[in-house]
Amino acid sequence: MDLLVVLSFEALKAVASLALISVGLAIIFGMMRVINLAHGEFLMLGGYAAIVATKAGINIWVATLLVSPLVVGVIGMVIERTIIRFLYGRPRDTMLATWGLSLLLVGLATTIFGNTTEGISAPAGSLQIGDYRIAAYSLIIIVIAVVVFAAIWAVFRFTRYGLIARSTMQNADMAAALGVNPSRVYAVTFGVGAGLAGLAGGVMAPITGIVPTIGAAYVAKAFITVIGGGPAILAGTVSASVMFGAIDQIITYLSTPVIGEVALLAAAVVLLRFMPQGITGRFFRRAA
Amino acid sequence: MIMNSHLNRRTLLKTGAGAAAGLGLASIGGRAFAQEDTIRIASLLDLSGGLDAAGKPMQDAITFAVEEINQAGGLLGKQISLVTYDTQTDMRLYPQYSQQAALKDKVSAVFGGITSASREVMRPVLRRLNTLYFYNTQYEGGVCDRNIFCTGITPAQKQSKHVPYAMNKWGKKIYTLAADYNYGQITAAWTRKYCTENGGQIVGEDFFPLDVTNFGSTIQKIQEAKPDFLYLVLVGGAHQSFYRQWAAAGMNKQIPMASTTMTIGGEQMVLSPEETNGILLCFNYFEALETPANKAFLERFHKRFGADYPYVTELAMATYQSVYLWAEGVKRAGTAERMPVIEALESGISLDLPSGKFSIDPQTHHCVMDINIGQIQDRKINILESYSQQQPLDTSGVCDLKKNPDDNSMYVIKV
User: Fold this and answer.
1) Contact A208 B218 (CB under 8 A)
2) Best exposed site among A23, A57, A228, B342 by fewest CB in 10 Å?
3) Per-residue pLDDT tens for B27-42?
4) pLDDT by residue (tens digit) across B180-239?
5) Which residues does UniProt assign to the signal peptide (chain A) (predicted)?
6) Are B183 and B264 within 8 A, CB to CB?
């Protein structure tokens, strides 16, 4: 019984991690149709921001939950203004540009931090469940994921910015005719997506450690989750994370981490064969 | 005017050609002179990429050994020059740089390769190109090739002491976590052998590719299996996160750990003391060795690289000592030519080095050395037990280069 609780807890943590690393991409790709191949590097930058800030003496919670998203959000906005905004509506060029950007960021990080694994210890100690011990930090990841998704939903549903952003993504010309400046909305939205990636990078840093090339480990999973999720950004990301995260963890527990990853990819292939539009392309079509 | 400029151009071309030819000759002459004047060796180590933490101290060690020998007057009256290749943790670069070292630099010996996989890429290339090779990493044993000398410790030297010592200390149930390639797989098999031979039981065994960073469900599996201790054969930067996650779950206070690889990349300096305290190690070399040779070495080394140098690792020391073994071979042979040096090294060379008495076993081209058990406490390693002059029994069981000098195999020893 304890084991069941602990295992479902691990699965929940995997789902929450997957949702967190994907949500920034879901906004940038889902809303803006920008295929951002530098998404993994945004996570990497978030991780470094958290580590550098923590080592500079800033409280670890402030570092991961505030410094990481702010730093990467600002970097994201700068990148949107200098590179991405010239490429809207040209997906192939965007892919090339962001791929180049990802190589550049990996190179920069290697130059600055060196190609070694950096890390910080996870805060918050451990919890005892029956005979088992788990890291309390896992619980915190789950809470952060829930809060982040609730906040995004609330912002897009209830605030003026959310309304303007959604309308701009649906029809930029019409929004412009009504007095909205689409260019600014794009910049802010890209910044928000990048900031969320930075947050995820900061939150994951104490678990995985950070190397300049860690983005590669994230970007494929994030794309699979977002594409598997389909057109509805939040509902899609959540449903795909639940499905892939649970499959990965259960298979990993029953066999090995390698087979777990294979199972995740196999599930994605099967899913997209039968639902090319992703989960929310078939179900929950009205979800946000 | 036109004629003039034409003539000018022609003279210019002639002078240019002459100058180029002269330069070419000069450079050929310089090259030949350099070859007579110095003995070249090459290091092929990962100075960047995932294995750089292990590779950089090895590079410092080989640099230091070469500098020392040169300062003491060199070898056969010549200076040694070191050609350095950074293999960047990229398997494609090993054969490429091995060829360059052998054909372009015409080195007398190549030192390097970190993972067993990289060694098995380099070994055939260097054998084909008749270039002597020193491999200085602890590994799974079984390489049988007259062109290579292995100075790292093998399972019969390491696990045969490490596993029973840990079992005496903590109990008989072992859970093994290992990297998923030849080193991890074969080391896990040796661990199983020494565990069952001593009346123990392997209650779990998991293998991880080098890029795995999430150990959450593994940590639950370990708790379910309730071992007395963990035997860790984890490799590289990504696997470091296991120690973090283990401590984050509070398990570092519940189940003790023994590790074959911890500290070879200076991990005890990167991870926090709580994450590494109590980990049981087994190596040929620790800085804490109380021999005069070691104390003198550390003093010289810190003078060269700074008092705050993190740690002289097992692999760094093996690299340092391998250069001295090679130099002794060259001295005895009276030449840096490959075959005379191999024959001199096979004559039974034994040196008193910082890690103690260090001898080449002619039959296997492996080394006979002291083995020490250490335990990490607050980033320092205390020596708990020492075993004098251990033979590479695993490899000598399958390999006899005296009887079969043409053997060229990597035996996977049945355990």
Assistant:
1) no
2) A57
3) 444 444 444 689 999 9
4) 888 899 899 999 999 999 999 999 999 998 878 888 888 888 988 999 999 999 988 788
5) none
6) no
ipTM of the complex: 0.77
Beta strand pairing call for B79-86 and B38-45: parallel
Which residue numbers of A have CB closer than 8 Å to B's CBs? 3, 6-7, 10, 13-14, 17, 110, 114-119, 121-122, 124-126, 128, 131-138, 206-209, 211, 214, 217, 249, 252-253, 256-258, 260
Q: Are residues B295 and B406 in the same domain?
A: yes
Instruction: Supply the range of the domain harboring residue B354.
Output: 36-154+288-370+390-410
Task: Give the Cα separation of A263 and A170 in Å (integer).
Answer: 36
What distance in Å separates residue B333's CA from the closest CA in chain A?
A: 41
Sign of CA dihedral A237, A239, A245, A248: negative
How many independent structural domains does chain B possess? Answer: 2
User: Is the domain of B169 the same as that of B236?
Assistant: yes
Residue environment code for B372-399, b if the CB has 16+ CB neighbours within 10 A, otherwise e = bbbbbeebebebeeeeeebbbbbbbebb
Residues B104 and B85: their CA atoms lie apart, in Å, by: 13
Q: 3-class SS at B45?
A: strand
B206 and B318 share one domain = no
CA distance A78 to chain B (A): 29
pLDDT by residue (tens digit) across A248-265?
888 888 888 888 888 989
Measure CB to CB from residue A135 to each of B49, B245, B272 and give the nearest one. Answer: B245
> Which residue's structure tokens are 């000018």?
B8
